[in-house]
Design a protein that fits this description.
Layout: E1 2-3, E2 9-10, E3 21-22, E4 38-45, E5 49-54, E6 59-65, E7 69-73, E8 76-80, E9 84-88, E10 94-98, E11 102-109, E12 122-125, H1 128-137, H2 144-157, E13 166-168, H3 176-184, H4 192-199, H5 203-214, H6 218-235, H7 240-246, H8 252-263, H9 267-278
Parallel strand pairs: 3-5
Antiparallel strand pairs: 1-2, 4-11, 5-10, 6-9, 6-11, 7-8, 7-10, 8-13, 9-12
Helix pairs in contact: 1-2, 4-5, 7-8
Length: 291
């Protein structure tokens, strides 16, 4: 368990993958000391990797290819997948996990040279142009004039994503046990009534607590959590039928319907769209189960 900003005990992210390596946070690149607005780079994460709580003096933008990154900020969990990045404001404490084999990209922004301010974590649309510009800025042989030109275009084209996909954790002792159990095992299918009996409370109390802390009903919150987890599994190349079973759905069609309710489209169509945004082709989702 971890402590929220309110001092309450709240559940962490879902069960740690076997073989996860815990590493220190990314060190700021040496170029960060230079008079640059943006310093970019990337690394490949060969095994599941966890970064404990930390903060940076600079704003940070992270995005991935061929996997997912899950980041926890206070009582919110963000899932970063192809075509989308996550903006982390300077000095904000956060922690993260990257799946094995993910290409992990990062760009650091000097606050004093950044002409906009996102005070909270923000999903960013990683268009091919934005990715190309940041890749260009990862070069170490750019002169000051060329770097300044590229940086100015980055500031012009960077936009928040239309979908701000975050899972709000309750941070409420009345229902923290439910959230912790579901984060550990999203396939847990216990009903609202079963949880009420176990916790010695009423289903009305549980319902009210979820609404007050997350804005969702118990069923909606569990569905949102499962879709977050599904994004990671699908991005790693898992088949829809496997993901459906892993998340506790009776059949793939039920999972596809739940995914559509949250994301507005099927898994196959969604990952086809994100591949088009990033220009990267990863292990395909099984198309014959997503029509």
């Amino acid at each position: 368990m971890v402590r929220s900003s309110r001092g309450e005990s709240t559940p962490g992210m879902w069960r740690r993958e076997a073989g996860t390596v815990v590493r220190r946070a990314l060190a700021l690149p040496e170029q960060a000391a230079a008079p640059s607005s943006i310093v970019a780079g990337f690394r490949v994460v060969p095994v599941p990797t966890e970064y404990p709580p930390h903060a940076h003096d600079l704003h940070e933008l992270v995005w991935v290819r061929g996997g997912t990154l899950t980041s926890r900020v206070r009582n919110s969990v963000f899932t970063v997948f192809g075509g989308h990045g996550l903006w982390m404001p300077a000095a904000m404490v956060h922690e993260g996990r990257a799946t094995a084999g993910a290409e992990f990209f990062h760009a650091f922004f000097a606050p004093e040279h950044t002409p906009f301010a996102y005070g909270e974590p923000k999903a960013i649309a990683m268009t091919p142009l934005l990715e190309s510009l940041l890749t260009h800025l990862s070069r170490t042989d750019l002169d000051a004039a060329a770097r300044a030109r590229a940086e100015s275009v980055v500031f012009d084209v960077m936009r928040p994503s239309e979908r701000q996909f975050a899972l709000q954790l309750p941070g409420d002792p009345r229902i923290d046990a439910i959230a912790a159990a579901l984060l550990d095992d999203p396939a847990d299918c216990r009903s609202l009534e079963e949880w009420a009996r176990r916790l010695g409370t009423s289903d009305r109390t549980i319902t009210r607590a979820f609404r007050q802390t997350t804005g969702l009903s118990f069923a909606q919150w569990r569905q949102m959590l499962r879709v977050h987890r599904a994004l990671a599994l699908l991005a790693e190349g898992s088949e829809v039928a496997t993901v459906s079973e892993t998340l506790g759905y009776a059949q793939p069609s039920s999972f596809i319907a739940a995914f559509r309710r949250v994301m507005g489209t099927t898994p196959g169509a969604f990952f086809g769209a994100t591949d088009g945004i990033s220009g990267h082709v990863r292990n395909p989702v099984s198309r014959d189960q997503n029509s």
